[in-house]
Model the fold of this input.
Amino acid sequence: MKLSTKGRYAVTAMMDLAIHDREGPVTLADISQTQGISLSYLEQLFAKLRKRGLVEGVRGPGGGYRLARMPHQITVAEIITAVDENVDVMRCHGDGNCQDGVRCLTHELWAELSNRLYEFLDGITLDQFVERPEIREIARRQDEEAKRMNFVFPRPAA
Amino acid sequence: MKLSTKGRYAVTAMMDLAIHDREGPVTLADISQTQGISLSYLEQLFAKLRKRGLVEGVRGPGGGYRLARMPHQITVAEIITAVDENVDVMRCHGDGNCQDGVRCLTHELWAELSNRLYEFLDGITLDQFVERPEIREIARRQDEEAKRMNFVFPRPAA
DNA sequence: TTTATTCTTGACTGTTTTACTTGGTTATTG
DNA sequence: CAATAACCAAGTAAAACAGTCAAGAATAAA
Done:
């Protein structure tokens, strides 16, 4: 288990996806703009999220990404482990490297801590955030802001 | 909040300290040997732990480190934040940089997640691990192993 | 069918963090 | 004084992070 800004990016992006889930696919370009994350970096993250079966890509105009499951079936733990991808099994991968049998002690100690942490994050689903009224409120403001920006700068000149 | 191997090192070392708390100060050399962590790296970690008032250093022969408080008064959260030291307040440090007022949404979202995680780790104290019989058992084996190693290689030749 | 849109993939780059090293200096005990 | 062990400072190789760039492949709309 590992927590970093990378995981936060992923969770933020997935949250954005969950909020606009009913309006069809969301483009990475949109997420990039509203959440302030580099587009190409998002691409990397979503490639991993897709491989883990958390999102589905829809190609072509009007395409984008959508959640592969219902928001209440996607946990924060899944998102984080999807992008961090090293479960960080410590030095001995369950069996191997602990020469003395001594180190395995502290490893299992940490493993339990890690487990409890995982279970905790595994108990938090996307919808728990999305359904909340104050979130819905800000999401609406976010959309209006996006619309306004689109009006002022409709399209880049050809 | 951040979780990495660095924090795990610190927690492991503090666990070792807690286990041998009653036998006087523990040297970093001992921890380095039994836990397989570089001595100088431990020095860096313990410098931070000391500044946060989690451990006390005892200089000179027979010296080492000891816990600054009772094991039940030291939480895992404290240890991790002590060595990681950047609470990672995201881009807007509570006020500043969020230009739109939009991004602050996801920030506060994550902040709450981070808070809940912190509270969770803050509820786990050192003694919760140390007092357990299976840990005590392995700790004793660890000590015997250390004694045996000392007997076979009593001292490096001058 | 062309074309624009969007996902998809891969390689590449600069910065930061890790984990570790080297080489000291104090303070304490015997 | 000599050994011990905490302290301190600086540097370093490798990895992870965050982001860029470029090219391709699928598909909806024109």
